[in-house]
Amino acid sequence: MKTIKVILIVLTAILSGTVINAQDDSKFGDDPEMCRVKLSTYDQFYKQNNIKDAIPAWRWCFINCPASTKNIYIHGTSIVDYMINNTEDTEIREKYVDTLLMVYDQRIEYFGEEGRVLGRKANDMLKYRSQEVTKIYEMYKTALELEGIETERSVLGNLMNVSVALYKNDIISDEEVVENYAKISENVDMQIEQANAAGKNKDVARLNDLMAIVEDIFVNSGAANCEAIINLYTPKFQENPDDVDMLKKILYLLEKGGEDECILSDLYSQVAEKLFEIEKSTTAAHSLGQLFFKLSESQKAEKYYLEAIEMSMEDKKLADLYYELALLYYSQMQNFPRAREYARKALGIDPNYGRAYSLIGKIYAASISNCSETELEQWAMYWLIVDQFVKAKSVDNSENLVKEANEYISIYSARFPTTEKLFWYDTNAGQSVNVGCWINETTTVRTSN
């Protein structure tokens, strides 16, 4: 009966293609026939998800015919993982972990694929031997170097995680974290390009998800500081200034750097302008206008605001652009007529744009010395200024704006003349008066009492 059973097992294995052709006996160790039997035995149990009964035969094959088939190692990790998770004895469990790592080492010895196998070994070490994080880190780096575009997603994600962990423990520098991020992101970009070319939409989606996670880990690591990013990406930008994906990545990283220094750096402005040359858009022009406003480069800021205005098709966006350009003319260029012109354009789109009224009030306040020679003309400017802030808070009741408006109203109302002073100008409260100069507006006479 035993002989018949063995023959049946071997026959099943041959028919299923599990064992290697008899001509390859050299791969089956010292006892090829027994190796085939044991391979078939463990394989059948494994396919039935009966891991417990597969263990003895699998162990025999692992020891006695390790070169017979790669399946010993492909299945072996699951089998040993089962052993690890089904023992409560700590000492035995650690021995099983040693065995698991040996499975990976032996697979490399007999079947190569060092990069792929090292990556998977590092994954399991991270799971069971996380205290050896420095060793794990080096294995991930080697895996990435060897596998290149074939590097598995888990390896890329875990390399980022481990890099940050080592950085936070002062084992590697911030620049090394940035460099690892750059290598990972470049690898993912290449994989996405390859997957897109092959029409593998699911792979593209998974890779995009991975990149989002990697970026989140990096941005929140504390290593993504301006100096490290600038040192890494400045030569890359100079070498390949037309790489749109890289340009966008540089801007993203600098924007997420969390420091004004990042946004105000030469690299940021150079990259932003280069990207705008390649891909013109309202958003890009607006960002450049804001950037050069912050840098006090008013001529460039004006240029990009006007470009953004020309391209904008959205009323809300256009109102904001008009207001910001008005603010530029007022605060940096001291061109008060143009400042009011664009503030009024914002109000033309959105009559409830309280900040535009507030800005006009400030423009008039800044024009007092140039537009009033007599005391009456000064009072007229005060009345006009208060008018703007009253309008501002009447259309926008946001807390900050109302607070600011009330402060200005209080300051300039206190400068209103008394009834007695008005008498000498043959003027009474309630009358209308015109403010000349470039302003040319009408206001109402008021007194402080």
Question: What report would you give on this structure?
Answer:
By secondary structure, the chain is mainly α. It has 23 helices and two strands. Strands 1-2 form a two-stranded antiparallel sheet. A hairpin with a 5-residue loop joins strand 1 (about 430-435) and strand 2. It is elongated. Residues about 1-25 have low confidence and may be disordered.
Secondary-structure map with pairings?
Blueprint: H1 2-16, H2 32-47, H3 51-64, H4 71-84, H5 90-111, H6 114-128, H7 133-147, H8 153-168, H9 174-197, H10 201-219, H11 226-239, H12 244-255, H13 260-263, H14 266-278, H15 282-294, H16 298-311, H17 315-331, H18 336-349, H19 354-366, H20 368-371, H21 375-395, H22 399-413, H23 419-423, E1 432-435, E2 441-444
Antiparallel strand pairs: 1-2
Summed up, what is this model?
With 449 residues, the protein is mainly α.
